[in-house]
Amino acid sequence: MQHRKDREARIRKQLRKVELPPSPYDTAWVAMVPLRGSPHTPCFPQCVEWILQNQHENGSWDINDFGSSANKNVLLSTLACVLALEKWNLGQEHIRKGLHFIGRHFSLVMDEEIAAPTGFNMIFPGMLSLAIGAGLQFPVRQTDIDGILHQWEMELKRSVDGKTLAGQKSYGREAYMAYVSEGLGNLLDWNEVMKFQRKNGSLFNSPSTTAAALVHNYDDKALDYLNMIVSKFGGAVPTVYPLNMHCKLSMVDSLEKIGISRHFSSEIEGILDMAYSFWLQRDEEIMMDVATCAMAFRLLRMNGYDVSSDELSHLAEASNFHNSLQGYLSDTKSVLELYKASKVCVSEHELILDNIGNWSGSLLSEKLCSEGVQGLPILEVEYALKFPFYTTLERLDHKRNIEHFDARGSHILKTECLPYGINQELLALAVEDFTFSQSIYQDELLHLDRWVKENRLDQLQFARQKLTYCYLSAAATIFPPELSDARISWAKNGVLTTVVDDFFDVGGSKEELENLIALVEKWDEHHKDDFCSEQVRIVFCALYTTVNQLGSIASAVQNRDVKNHLIEIWLHLLRSMMTEAEWQRSQYVPTMEEYMTNGVVSFALGPIVLPALYCVGEKLLGSAVKNQEYSELFRLMSTCGRLLNDSQGFEREGSEGKLNSVSLLVLHSGGSMSVEAAKNAIQKSIVASRRDLLRLVLKEGTVVPRACKELFWKMCKILHLFYFRTDGFSSPKEMASAVNAVINEPLKLPS
């Protein structure tokens, strides 16, 4: 237990204050800045000293404390450190060892298959040319050096003009050339480069680019920026600063994705409050980076902050993105973040999000089909495109994200930015949390299995046996171990609604259905001789004992008697089911309004969701239950469910002689509407109801507590997944793998 607390404490510390690792590459460039008026004296001698003190035995400079295997990132850092020492005529032995390290691994530079930091093909050859010009000799074949420099010159020929294929100036290309300016030296117009200077004095928040600009073009604000970061970090600077907000939002995103955010709610609230303040001020730290801006929008909106999609208007068109630095770099992470942000739409008027969703989705699909995606797991992109966030079950997502979690967690810019071991801590806590949860889920499922047998529900021949599905929908969404009462309530009522639905559909006669309703109306006043059949006895007794038991638990949590409300919910459902049964018996064709008013109740989500609201740890007042907001949450959720069911089950229900919303639209149109057109109209209604539900769930300052509102949204997501491709609840194999993944199968972690 203590080691878990220690781990949580280390994560908390990182959430409060992001520790950025030193970048030998950026430190070397800062070390090359001369003191103003003294070109032969370093402005930042502490950076030079850090280089002298931090070379590895193998001759390299690397962010790891040990000399790791060579890669392009390490070669870039090592060459920059060698250049810095050569500039100040220091550390001849360090230089010799560094040159030999580069020589031994020079073949990596030419290997296009090996991942490279941003701008490597511009920066490394440019620095190589600078080193050769300074008289440094590399133990490398001249033909290899010539080959690298020739490629660089060809790239320069294409790029320095700043022309696109259409022959027009590209802002994205200009920004890129400024971003990699360390490798271009006197080939650039440094006054043009300074157009990209930010309010904090930096160029792109990059110490190396800012230092390179200062080497060629003195600027007070740029020097102030470098003074500030050297003062803050000492002799070794990070590869980007500030990166505080990006790192913190990324951590919040990771905590949510792997299911452990609830352990850090106060820290997350502090981060999101700060992000919201930055958002309102249009702070450069959020707004100047596409991925950070999109992530901030999504996380803030989904956590109840009032953020307008208007702030993303500059990205509404694909051409605007392509004309940015991230667009020029074809940065898949930025496109994916925009795609995910576009899905959290809460109004039909958010056309900006629609546009972003359209072009970013198309671009991601193209990338998957053509060159693939770089810097991101292909699975992550495929999954985002295949499963919109409103069709996912959290615990299923958590498992997938844990199993594919990048524990190294590096963020490759010009050089690798590796957080101090925090991702390993996140992964270890997530694994522990998920594994413990599974043991709870397995025990709960055994308890539910006994409950089914004790109540003889397995003896009802007409009833579908859906216990595992009912429990899956609970465990996969109301996942924290401590919310056992809510899961058990949800699952038991889910089983009972399935039994009652089948009883009304196929299992019961008119007399039996009327008998069941009369018994529920009597409740405690019923008599043992009141049952007209054994089927009615089994169904009612299961209802009676279970609702009483769950009512006692909910009443204890709420500190008031809520049992009568639970009985009312069931009575409301049974009467609506009887209405549908009478319609079918008399072949009555209801209006669409009649059908939907009754259908949102008869879809049977009331007994599943509403009692569980009492068990999620929030006080739900009687006045809130009677409030219009409560009714609207229920109506919107049930509308989604009813229409999804009707759309997917249209053929099956039609063959059984049942009417639903699709067939009613066709019938009432007088032949003017086809089945396809009716399905399209229903789909539009589903989208509108889902969007309105999300807006109400996310709205702050409402009478129904947020934790309770979340259950309506969770059920909406379950319905979208269950009806994603088929009438899922009638297709037993569809959910089998999901059941096993959440409840039974242990995590599969890479060895």
UniProtKB/TrEMBL annotation:
Domain Terpene synthase N-terminal as annotated: residue spans: 189-372
GO terms (BP aspect): diterpenoid biosynthetic process
Keyword Membrane: no
Keywords, alphabetical: Lyase, Magnesium, Metal-binding
InterPro entries xrefs: Isoprenoid_synthase_dom_sf (IPR008949), Terpene_cyclase_plant_C1 (IPR044814), Terpene_synth_N (IPR001906), Terpene_synth_N_sf (IPR036965), Terpene_synthase-like (IPR050148), Terpene_synthase_metal-bd (IPR005630), Terpenoid_cyclase/PrenylTrfase (IPR008930)
One annotated GO molecular function: terpene synthase activity
Highest taxon above the source species: Eukaryota
Cofactor: Mg(2+)
Domain annotation Terpene synthase metal-binding: ranges: 453-691
Family membership: Belongs to the terpene synthase family.
Protein name, per record: Ent-kaur-16-ene synthase, chloroplastic
Organism: Aegilops tauschii subsp. strangulata
